[in-house]
Each structure stands twice: as structure tokens, then as C-alpha cells.
Design a protein that fits this description.
Elements: E1 2-6, E2 9-14, H1 25-37, E3 46-51, H2 66-69, H3 72-91, E4 96-100, E5 103-105, H4 107-113, E6 117-120, E7 125-127, H5 142-150, H6 152-161, E8 165-166, H7 167-172, E9 178-179, H8 185-197, H9 201-216, H10 220-248
Length: 258
Amino acid sequence: MDVQRDGDVEWLSLSRPDNFNALNLALTQELYDYFGSLPDRQDVRVVVMRGLGRHFCAGYDLEDVDQLTVSLDQGLRLQRQLSAVVLRMRRCPQPIVGLLQGAACGGGFALALGCDVRFAAPNARMNVAMAKIGLTGCDMGISYFLPRAVGPAIAAELMYTGRFVNAERALRIGLVNDVVPEDKLAETAKELVQEMLAMSPVGLRLTKDGLAMAQETSNLATVMALEDRGQAMCFEAFMKEGVAAFREKRAPNYGASR
């Protein structure tokens, strides 16, 4: 895994291109540690996640599959760590922008679904690959995220079969935000990230928090209480400058406040 810093943004690259960026024990541990560190990091406001080489992530490295089959206890421990990576992606306060090219399969598909926003190259192909190797299609949060993204009927189709979805269909069913040429993925992400960074630091973090909470509860009053809390926390710290910048047609300067 490689992480590069660009101001308030970190670019996280899966860096096993010769193995199609497949997940193994070492990469899983790196991702687990990285996303676990983000809640305490005020210096990082957005993360862009991508894969080096021809593919985003082809899933779990089958060369490491013996590690999962040694015993039930070990298999469950490793499975829970894989799942915890996606859980930490969702719990961290930084929005995550995923850039997908080539294969985003199995565990790689789960990582993509864990991103808040997804841009795909025309050659991107996604599937619930675990359904094709004797496992269930419910893995690493896929059964949670996929029906919320595309609806239960399409989720069932993909999870029951492991059928591939190409970039064109992924855009049509709402699985990705846009399809752009592969050499424009980074540029597209940068444009969106700059708009995200125009929000106040606390406002952006609480928006991700509130959006996640709203998807996990069906109670309108609970959602509104969370929204009210977030807005009240931003009133004194950021609203005066935000309104002034809007009126003066300039970019806001929220200072070092987080």
C-alpha cells in the first residue's frame, strides 16, 4: 500500500499491481491500520483510493487462501479483519473517493462499495466473486451496501450468481457516480475533492457522519436530531465566514479550525 499526501488529501494506492492488487494478509493489515488511524487525524480531510496498474483490486489473493482454511477459528479471525477494513472505511470521518479501473471483484468490490463516491473507467468490471468459489455472496458488507445502492432485486441477481457488471451498466443502476476515461480518473477526483474541501472542516466530517447514520435508521426524528446537532456545532465556528464568502463571491477561509 502506498499513501501520498497532497495538502489536506491523501491518495491511497493499492500497490500489488503484479497480483492485480489482490488482498493478502499484509495488505489487509495495512488497510486495517490506515483506516483505523483516520478518526484521530485532523490533518486529513478526504481520501482518494485507487489501485496501481491495470486493476483496482481483483479480490482476495487465492495464493493466500490456505490461511483461511487452516481452522474455523483462524478463518473467522481473518474474515473479521477483512470485514473490519470496510467498517473502518465507513466509520472514519473523511469522505473516500474510489477510482475503479479493470477488476473490482470480490473483496475489491466490497472496498469499492465502502467508498462514499465511485468513479469508473470504461474497462471497469465488478462482481461478487465469492459466490463463484463455494462461499456465500454475503461478505465484507456487500449484503448491506449493494441493495442500498442498486435495490434488492438487482443486488439479489448479482449476489446469487457472481455475474459481472460492466461500467456502462454500473452507471445505469447507480453503482458508480460517473464513467470517465481511465486517464481522467485522477483529474475527475481532484475536481470533486476541491468542492468537498470548500466545506468547513467540521461540516464535512459531520456530513459523512450524519449521512451514514441516516442510512442506518428508519426513524425520522432520530435523523433530524443528528442533523440539528451537526448544524448547531457549525453555527458559531464556521457559518459567519461561510455566509460572508458567499455574499462576496469568494472562497471561504475557515482557518485552522477543525
